[in-house]
Hints:
183 residues; 6 strands; globular
Amino acid sequence: MPTWFCSREWFCHVGKFDEGGKGVPEDLLFFYEHIRKGGGVFRVDQCLLQYRYHPQAATHSVLEETIWNHRVRFLEDRALKHWRSFTIWNAGKQGRKLYRSLSPANQKKVAAFCDVDENKIAKGFYTYQESKERRKPQIPIQHFRDATPPFIICVKLDLTGGGFEENLATLDLKEGLDYYHFN
């Protein structure tokens, strides 16, 4: 389980946790504010501490949907507002959920879904049936090699025996510029 830490000086600069009560993901909101204020993130591939859960932990009061909604808004604010169009990499459940969660303005920016699943590609498009628009949006589904960056990738790493990572590497893209992971 990844965790992170910062100096007290930086903590005071970022501001205190949002103590809005039960169900508020205060650590996630603090982390996003850290990023907004120019904070960095560095990976350390060794165990520095042990973290434990207990049944009364506040973590359990935060709904998955609440975290999802904060993540989507942060993605829209930090990446999507800078792009005229983009492709969602995953025409399956997670990719469609992301599409449905986007603001209407960002939904219109989705040029296509891309995937490797021939059955999804053969369908040709995804129809957003829940749309309030009279003519339901239909978003093309393409093979990843035919898709145009930038990408929002809704595929979990290490689940395909390296297949996804190999496919991504063939495109010679730069993370943070040509794509962002959202999984």
